[in-house]
């Protein structure tokens, strides 16, 4: 053989004694056995691949762990489905499995049919096993056996006959049973016997076992040829594995459609989740944009508040005056053609021209109030001309100010302001008379400059002369 030999010895069997099963001190010899068994398994994988059976190889833990219930009392080497096939079935098997069941038995080896090599303190065996928890494979086997019950007549079902023929073709040392008890020779297998063993396995929660067991003494005595014998025995069990283990080519429970439904459901759930995530991302982006706009607005407000107030300029002061109503730059619709509209059109043109002429004519100043018009003739021509010729003197007229009347019956009279009415007029005392006059008719009388104060003629006294020290 091209692969390293298994070559079991008494020391290998003793590593799995009951008193050593819970101790990690013996993990080293168990690890050596595991490494040799995995190296031997490579030859088995190659021979199964020649038969068209693709399997992965896994070894059980050589130290106490949760997967072996903290007892390393045997060493398993599993030959089972590849990773892609296991993942496909695990999605279906995990749907009905509770969290407590997963914690109680985290090992995945009970959920798939497998070929295996098992080494314990008392024997070494090769087998095909399927646990009741491997629901897909068990249901597939039951569907094959149920076809025999539905068949009437002398001829058995082809599916059941195919399985019993494969069992009868095994060497006479091979047997089958539920767990490790009540095993029956494979040469005596019938569909009813297989169904009964399957029922016992389900009741006892133990795997349906088909294989060959070699006692410790026999294995040690024939260690030179045992490696090849064990390899041949696993290859002999390959047809049983092919007939019982579910695959797309060996589907008697229409699981293919269920898997397609599961894939479609997963794809739909994934699409809904992606749509929900995309909607959430869009909402978050809009919220961030709104937050940024609000932050920019607050920043602009703070900047404007920190800047000094803008002073009006000539450009901004008269900006409103140059609006639509401030000038005559607005275009006017042109008159219609002379041939259109007849006399009404010409009358409209004349009216429009007259309106434009009135608008272009210089505006006269508004007439003075009637009261001023009545007072104006009473003013003497010379006084009016003199008042018009003299420029108004500036100043602020207040209560108590001396004012001169510029026009009217009291022109050139000087009086004193006794009261301001706040409406542009003032009550002025003109000697014994008191009358109300407009502020425009008054001018402030500014007295002459005050005479400068005369400086004193007294001389300032001279400072005393300090005495000389003796």
Automatic annotation (TrEMBL):
Question: Which region ranges are annotated with the description Disordered?
Answer: 270-401, 450-470
Show which residues constitute the signal peptide.
none
In this chain, composition skew of type Basic residues spans 457-470
Q: Where in the sequence does UniProt note compositional bias of the Low complexity kind?
A: 369-395
Q: Where is the composition biased (Basic and acidic residues)?
A: 270-304, 329-339, 349-361
- What this protein is called in its record is KOW domain-containing protein
């Amino acid at each position: 053989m091209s692969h390293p030999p298994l070559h079991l010895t008494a020391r290998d069997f003793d590593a799995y004694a009951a008193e050593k099963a819970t101790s990690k001190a013996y993990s080293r010899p168990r690890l050596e056995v595991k490494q040799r068994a995995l190296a031997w398994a490579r030859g088995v994988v190659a021979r199964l691949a020649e038969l068209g059976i693709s399997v992965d190889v896994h070894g059980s833990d050589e130290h106490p762990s949760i997967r072996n219930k903290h007892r390393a009392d045997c060493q398993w080497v599993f030959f089972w489905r590849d990773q892609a096939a296991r993942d496909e079935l695990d999605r279906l098997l995990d749907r009905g499995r509770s969290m407590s069941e997963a914690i109680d038995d985290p090992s995945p080896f009970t959920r798939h049919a497998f070929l295996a090599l098992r080494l314990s303190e008392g024997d070494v065996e090769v087998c095909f096993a399927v646990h009741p928890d491997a629901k897909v494979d068990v249901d597939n086997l039951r569907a094959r056996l149920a076809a025999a019950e539905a068949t009437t007549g002398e001829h058995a079902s082809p599916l059941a006959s195919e399985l019993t023929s494969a069992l009868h073709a095994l060497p006479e040392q091979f047997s089958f049973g539920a767990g490790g008890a009540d095993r029956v020779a494979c040469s005596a297998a019938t569909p009813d016997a297989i169904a009964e063993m399957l029922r016992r396995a389900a009741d006892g929660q133990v795997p349906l076992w088909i294989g060959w067991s070699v006692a410790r003494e026999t294995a040690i005595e024939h260690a030179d040829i045992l490696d090849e014998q064990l390899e041949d025995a696993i290859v002999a069990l390959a047809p049983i594995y092919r007939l019982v283990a579910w695959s797309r080519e060996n589907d008697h429970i229409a699981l293919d459609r269920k898997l397609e439904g599961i894939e479609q459901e997963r794809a739909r759930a994934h699409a809904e989740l992606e749509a929900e995530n995309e909607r959430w991302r869009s909402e978050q982006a809009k919220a961030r944009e709104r937050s940024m706009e609000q932050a920019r607005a607050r920043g602009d407000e703070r900047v404007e508040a920190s800047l000094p107030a803008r002073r009006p300029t000539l450009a901004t002061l008269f900006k409103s005056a140059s609006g639509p109503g401030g000038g005559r730059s607005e275009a006017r619709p042109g008159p219609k053609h002379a041939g259109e509209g007849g006399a009404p059109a010409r009358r409209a043109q004349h009216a429009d021209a007259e309106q434009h002429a009135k608008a272009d004519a210089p505006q006269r100043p508004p007439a003075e109030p009637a009261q001023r018009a009545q007072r104006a003739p009473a003013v003497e021509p010379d006084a009016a001309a003199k008042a018009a010729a003299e420029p108004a003197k500036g100043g602020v007229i207040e209560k108590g100010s001396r004012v001169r009347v510029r026009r009217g019956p009291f022109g050139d009279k000087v009086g004193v302001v006794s009261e301001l009415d706040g409406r542009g007029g003032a009550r002025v005392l003109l000697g014994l008379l008191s009358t109300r006059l407009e502020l425009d008719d008054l001018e402030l009388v500014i007295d002459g400059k005050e005479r400068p104060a005369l400086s004193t003629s007294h001389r300032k006294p001279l400072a005393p002369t300090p005495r000389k020290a003796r």
